[in-house]
Inverse folding.
């Protein structure tokens, strides 16, 4: 395709929707750097920004036959914005869980936690413990910790009394504390055996 800059967005979209890979490549080359620049300003890791932009282009190619786009540039930047927001939410949730794990572990192992406990294994134990919770308790705990909903909001969402919500959250925390305590004590015992 000669004179690629002469093709309008509408023409490129129409060609791409028929499976024209060259048209898709033109769109990619035309917007990739700007989209990457926009994403990289919002996230700390360049590879994460690159992955977001790649995901957006993979998505428009895979959905090309059903894609309805009025303004391609606006669509692409909005798609990247949503990717960034999803990334930020995921980071907040991850940090929240990690803070909870560290808090629980410090209750039992003091200041030597990082030296005594393999953190990734501890995190895996946390999620394993989460899966062991009763379904309703797990759902309420996830709404509280992952979705950051208040007791009142969870009560309204699930149509159950606030005291029931508080009970389930307290039960989840108690069970996870015991689960992680046993895991940590097991690791500490293993460490003592090995080092002794």
């Amino acid at each position: 395709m000669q004179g690629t800059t002469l093709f309008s967005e509408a023409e490129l979209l129409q060609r791409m929707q028929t499976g024209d890979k060259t048209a898709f490549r033109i769109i990619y080359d035309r917007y990739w750097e700007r989209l990457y620049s926009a994403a990289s300003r919002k996230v700390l890791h360049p590879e994460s920004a690159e992955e977001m932009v790649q995901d957006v282009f993979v998505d428009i190619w895979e959905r090309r036959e059903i894609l309805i786009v009025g303004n391609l540039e606006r669509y692409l930047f909005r798609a990247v914005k949503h990717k960034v927001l999803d990334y930020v939410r995921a980071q907040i949730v991850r940090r929240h869980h990690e803070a909870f794990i560290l808090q629980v572990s410090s209750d039992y192992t003091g200041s030597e936690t990082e030296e005594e406990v393999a953190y990734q294994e501890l995190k895996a134990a946390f999620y394993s413990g989460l899966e062991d919770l009763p379904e309703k308790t797990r759902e309420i705990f996830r709404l509280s910790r992952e979705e950051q909903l208040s007791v009142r909001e969870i009560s309204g969402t699930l149509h159950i009394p606030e005291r029931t919500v508080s009970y389930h959250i307290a039960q989840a925390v108690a069970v996870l504390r015991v689960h992680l305590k046993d895991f940590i004590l097991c690791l500490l015992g293993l460490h003592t055996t090995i080092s002794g």
Observations:
- Residues 72-109 form the longest helix (38 residues).
